[in-house]
Amino acid sequence: MDLEIRNLTHRYDALEVLRDINLTIASGQIVCVVGPSGCGKSTLLRMIGGLEQPSEGVVNQIGSPPEGSLNPLTYIFQDFALLPWRTVSGNISLVLEGHGLTKAEVAERISDVLERTRLTEFSGVFPKQLSGGMKQRVAIARALSVNPAVLLMDEPLSALDSQTRELLMDDLVSLWEREPFTACYITHNLAEAVRLGHLVVVLSRRPGEIRETVAIDIPLGERSVDHPDLARIQRKLWDMMRDEALSADRQLANA
Fold first, then answer.
1. Rounded to whole angstroms, how far apart are CA atoms 235 and 80?
2. In whole angstroms, what is the distance from residue 68 CA to residue 147 CA?
């Protein structure tokens, strides 16, 4: 299933946050959205997920969700959103409730995503016993358990230290290589964007408009930390954003 965003504009009263966004998120692609603070990245994601209605424009779902999809659009947040009184398996099973699945079907889905995210041995552990990186793995496993058409990822690694962030990026690449998924990935971290994105969308400062889209055709599995082409693309993105990031900070300070 593809997502087609057409002529999307959003305002909060007189404040225009996004302006005339046109973007296609193709099946099997990770599209990373970057831009200065306050440019409307998270607002865009909320409208894609149906949590907010745009002032103008539409978000169309083109095609059908994958077979067995329980929730076509599924969020992964930066704060993990795990229930502390439920085990790892219990947190995953939460999103499978109310869908008419048998106990065997629920167990099969949980077992599958635990294996894919290398969490099988932690199935009975509670969140307080896990590191931040492990908690985010649980959140990823929970999202994958509903077999979504599109993952909506709102700065999922921003709460983690740099070493853990690198490990989680490796995990996401491994998951995608094993079974390609579709994602809209919001981040302020350009290193994440060039490591994970098939397409990087650069928004201007508020009101956010698409300034440029940068396609990266290097296979995900070949994108090492010190890949020279990735470093070049990252510098290009930063050169494009530097002045607007400074202006955005001043704009927010004076708001």
1. 30
2. 7
Backbone angles phi, psi at 20, to 5 degrees: 50, 55
**pLDDT-based confidence at 248, cuts 50/70/90?**
low
Q: How far apart are CA 32 and CA 249, in angstroms?
A: 21
- Radius of gyration of the chain from Cα atoms? 18
Helix 132-145, helix 103-116: angle, nearest 10: 130
Is the previous residue joined to 156 through a cis bond, with omega within 30 degrees of 0?
A: no
pLDDT, one tens digit per residue, over 50-86 is: 999 999 999 999 999 988 899 999 999 888 889 999 9
pLDDT tens for each residue of 123-170: 999 999 999 999 999 999 999 999 999 999 999 998 888 899 999 999
- Tokens representing residue 64 in the block: 């059908």
With the C-alpha atoms ordered 45, 49, 54, 59, is the resulting torsion angle positive or negative? Answer: positive
Residues in the chain, overall count = 255
H helix runs in the chain, sequence order: 41-48, 88-94, 103-116, 132-145, 162-178, 190-196, 228-253
Contact at 8 Å (CB) between 153 and 185? yes
Long-range contacts of 232-239 (CB under 8 A, 24+ apart): 233/194, 233/200, 234/190, 234/191, 234/193, 234/194, 237/34, 237/190, 237/193, 237/194, 237/200, 237/202, 238/190
Average pLDDT, the chain: 91
Question: Is the model more confident about 183 or about 79?
Answer: 183
What are the residues facing 4 on neighbouring strands?
A: 24, 60
